[in-house]
Design a protein that fits this description.
The structure holds two protein chains of two kinds.
Chain A (H helix, E strand, L loop, with lengths): L2 H9 L6 E5 L4 E8 L2 E4 L2 E8 L2 E4 L4 E8 L1 E4 L2 E3 L2 E9 L4 E3 L2 E8 L4 E3 L2 E3 L15
Chain B lengths: L1 E6 L5 H17 L5 E5 L5 H10 L4 E6 L1 H11 L5 E6 L5 H6 L4 H10 L2 E9 L2 E3 L2 E5 L10 H7 L5 E7 L3 E7 L1 E5 L20 E6 L4 H6 L1 H6 L9 E5 L1 E6 L4 E4 L2 E5 L2 E13 L7
Parallel strand pairs in B: 1-2, 1-3, 3-4, 4-16
Antiparallel strand pairs in B: 5-6, 5-16, 7-10, 7-14, 8-9, 8-13, 10-11, 11-12, 13-16, 14-15
Classes of the chains: A mainly beta, B alpha+beta.
Amino acid sequence: MDKKQAQLMEDDNLSDNTESVIGPSVKIDGDLKSRGNLRVDGTVAGKIKTAKNLLVGESANITADIEAENSVINGNVQGNVNVSGALMLGKSGKVVGDILCGSLQVQEGAYFAGKCQMQAKAAVPVLPVEETK
Amino acid sequence: MYYYILDTLNIPQKEFERQQTELQSLLTEFNINGEMARITPLRTIQDLVETAASRGAKTLIACGTDETFNLMLAAVKDRDFILGFAPFSPNTQLGKILGMTDKLTCAKAIAGRRIEKIDAAKINDNFFISYLELGLGTLTNSKIGFFSALKLFAGMPAEVKMRIDGQYTATSKMMGALLINTRGTEMCASGSIGNPQDGYLDLLILEKLSRLHATKFKKAIENGCYELITNSSSIKCKKIEFLEPTNYKIFMNGKEVSKFPVSIELIPGKIKILVGKDRTF
């Protein structure tokens, strides 16, 4: 994880207070719902819904629609992603599906195939933008 | 009225007499009265709970070990008692959880009469407020030597299948697990895991570790703080059904309590309990 991702996670409290962690050996089949922050490093088939933040780890393999407040995706996701706040596709992230989000950041190396739509929302958090030379 | 249930069966006689005298003198000092009754082979804990109910006792104090409290909890069933615990042996899990590690803190807690409502987890027909152990989870609160830690993960992980909250099925290759309502370990007491008032059980899953990680996380394994260990899982749930492998054993305080398949459910705020100042929640 690079500095920028770490910063985003810190800003969005994704690294702290993670309530549920799905480890690499865990395979889930069905609707995974969480009240708090969620981290997925394993395999999920079905649906993921969390009222807070979602972190998809590099080893994660998700075949599911995702709903979250903020999210960082570093693993494989096949399904639609609906994030009301900030979404970040990390350099190892792969999304095949449509994205609906408040704000989007895509790192070099990330793969995305699908439609992307930004939500018109007044209080969308603004992500730090890297200066370009 | 307070009704004290004294467990003579799990504690050596000489030690028991000493503990009882110490407790009695402290209760007298704090002006707490009540009736004391001993568990004997002829008067079981169920009989004593019945007697307490018939005499109009409102508060039951289990004096003994964690097992004494768990047996009392099972005997109370749906009766409306306020429960308490007086540890008659050192290092009881419940003592740490409830902030009653010795007779003095226990007497103070009874005198202070601070009552908290906590969740009760139900396995088969028994209730518990602490945690269940699976596989290497039985090593919680025991000392693991350096060389034992190296050998710890030599075995093959069990492929466990479970249904959580009736919503999804989870399969995991695990070396051990803890299903926590609350826990008494100070090292990992912070955070949202093991809060007996949040309405959730916490399932912590320990995966197979390398020798390096086994020694690195030895303390976390001893303390049951699996959330600090690489690649471990932590899942919040209200109901869990362990489905496979059949006959896989579940332990509490190192004693077998059930086998797979089994269903475990949380009943929020079921227990009213006396707590001390140094409780972990």
